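For the sake of transparency, this paper describes our internal protein records without simplification. Because each token names a local backbone shape, the row as a whole describes the fold. One such record is reproduced below, unchanged from the form in which we store it:
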Amino acid sequence: MKKIMISMALFLCVGTIMGQVDKAALKQAQKEAKAQMTEAQKIDEAIKAKIDAKTATNEEIFSECKKGQALIRKAIKSGAIADNKLGEAYRISADFALFPHNVLLGQAINKEPFDTAFYYSNLKVMTSAIQNEIKHTKVTKGEAGNEGYIKSKLMNLAQCGDYYIYAAQFNTECQQYDKALEAFETAINYTKIYPEVADKASLRIPPEQLAYYAFHTAHDAKMYDKMDELYDMAMQYADGASATKQVKISAYLERGDSAAWANNVREMTVKEPQGNDDYIQMLIGYYLKKDKAAGKDSNEMVKYIDEVLAVDPNILIARYGKAYRLFEQEKYDDAFAEYLKCTEIKSDYYDAWYQCGLCRYRQALALNSTVSTIKNQVEAKKTLEKTKELFGSAIPYFEKARECAPDEPQKWAFELRQCYSVTGQAEKAAEMDKLL
């Protein structure tokens, strides 16, 4: 029992000593903070007087404000400033940021060299200081009140949103991409970060356009995850939506991720086929290469095209791509039907008319190659007649191709000569000979 009582007594004694030490430390901290704040205030008043009198040099403004800022920030960070003095402390801090800010902004406007890194770090200090000054200053009304002053501070804070746009631009030009994106995001989310001015801040550039700039900055920096974060909002900027879409897609190839590129292009073009002919053509080429590597019966390309055509059956490049793949697979009747649909979409489409004729021409050649193997003469004769019929059926389509490219006989005269010869039209065949 005695041991317990002694331990408790020692504990109480130590607690008393610690309390005395804490009070002494706090008193000393308060004394130091007060001295720091007083000295900072003197620097603030002195440099402000010189600025008003237009006798302060830029170097002096930077030097004195940095010195004063160090003092006031140290005082604030100590936590030893009385609550009723915090608003004043942040006002002094805001002054020490505002004075060099004005100098730097003037240098930027006049296209003079200036410290972009300091501009941005100083801007962050300034907006934080103004916000905290407003937060820790009690509003008083009446003739002697500070209500008008606080309103002016709120307007200052609202205006700072545009300064973050400048900071983003400055940092982008200097390829300080991390800082540029941070500044862009602050501007985009300015009224969320500074809700005090949600009804007052009106940025000179709308958030979706800022997201567009930030997205492309992230691309320049090869910060692909950040691009993905910004993409949806950047796409809301209508004037840049096409460029944004193109950059996002090309970025997958930059990363070496062709599968992701294909998936994104497929999703985009199936969702909105019109206006995306170039992408559809690129993806057709991609799937065609994969299909050829996988084997003759692979049809990923056709599956993709069918998805596109299900949304819009008049996408010409898709329709032609499907016909081409079917033709390659020697599915001539199916290919013919698709090529014919192409001519319905575009009546002067040379390639489609020519390919229609070529489908029948290839069928005729294939059938003709079997005639010599048929032992039954009656069947052989029927097959030969069918061959001539197919050659004949090709003629109207080759002639339509001729109409589309009348000055380029090398494109159609050979096949027409063959068809006219087989079908017994010697004069027309000779005409084709002359053209060749």
In short: The chain has 19 helices and no strands. The domain at 342-436 is CATH 1.25.40 (Serine Threonine Protein Phosphatase 5, Tetratricopeptide repeat). The CA atoms of residues 217 and 268 lie 23 Å apart.
